[in-house]
Structure formats: C-alpha cells, structure tokens
Amino acid sequence: MEEKNQGIGGITFTGPITVNGPMFDIHDNQHVHIHTNGEERSDAEETREAPSDEELVKKLMPIFYNNEADVQQFLKEIQGMAQENITALVNQWVKDKRISDYGNSRKGVLWGILHDAGLYQRSKQNWNERVS
Questions:
Q1: Which of 68, 61, 41, 52 is nearest to 116 (CA)?
Q2: Helix axes 53-60, 68-78, angle to 10 degrees
Q3: Does residue 96 contact residue 24 with C-beta atoms inside 8 Å?
Q4: Which letter, b or e, does each residue of 103-131 get, where b requires 16 or more Cβ atoms within 10 Å of its Cβ?
Q5: Residue 113 — very low, low, confident or very high, per pLDDT cuts 50/70/90?
Q6: Model pLDDT for residues 59-107, shown as the tens digit of each residue
Q7: In angstroms, rounded to a whole number, what is the distance separating the alpha carbons of residues 15 and 77?
C-alpha cells in the first residue's frame, strides 16, 4: 500500500474530491500546495509571467501620485514582508497621502498589480477586507 506524506499538520487527498459547505479560499493559506498529474505547484507560483521591474513601476506610478521615489521605496519595503503587513502599510500610505484613495486605485487596481507581480498572494477579497 502506498504511503502518503501528510506534511505539516496537513491533509492529503488522492483522486478527485468534492467539498460541500461554505466556500473557503485556499489562496489565503501559505501552506497549500497543489499537485496535479504528478507535478507540484505552490499557490504562490504564478502561471503568468510577472512584469519586469520597469513595467511594475510604470503601472504603480499613477496610484502613487506619479512619485517614482515612493513607488521604489514601497516596493523595497514590501520585499519579504508578511501579507497582513503589506495591507497595513497600504492603509498607512493612503492616510499619509502617498497612495491615492481615488476610486478603485488602492482596492482592485493596486491588488491586481501586486498580485500579478507575485508580491501579494492572497485573494482580492482578503485584500479588500484589510485595505480601508
């Protein structure tokens, strides 16, 4: 009989599964790993290619009032930062008027840019609950 590795307090499913009950988001759990067809993919791995640093700065500029120094500082500060601290920093920078609070800038747009770049891995729902 084949032995399965349970991981750190984890549960291993083999074969197809169906989950009934309230919806949950596996993206909010850093310990989730997805195995398909014998290949492992951590949820943090993006299927799309992350934008280059130059493209990333260009996309972020309007949200940071076109202040490139602030964009660079923000990107430097969030490197290796816990996900909940990133949203706390965003809230502080909105309060300090370093990140725009206009329209959807700090909500969907900023989340999408950071998520696509692999800098914020949690769900948009998680982001919107934490960013004021």
A1: 52
A2: 120
A3: no
A4: eeebbebbbebbbbbebbbbeeebbeeeb
A5: very high
A6: 999 999 999 999 999 999 999 999 999 999 999 999 999 999 887 777 8
A7: 42
Per-residue tokens: 50: 């992350």
Tokens 């949203």 correspond to what residue? Answer: 87
Domain-wise residue ranges, the chain: 53-130
SS (H, E, C) the chain: CCCCCCCCCCCCCCCCCCCCCCCCCHHHCCCCEEEECCEEEECCCCCCCCCCHHHHHHHHHHHHCCCHHHHHHHHHHHCCCCHHHHHHHHHHHHHCCCCCCCCCHHHHHHHHHHHHCCCCCCCHHHHHHHCC
The residues, ordered by sequence, that sit 6+ positions from 127 with a Cβ below 8 Å of its Cβ are: 87, 107, 111, 115, 120
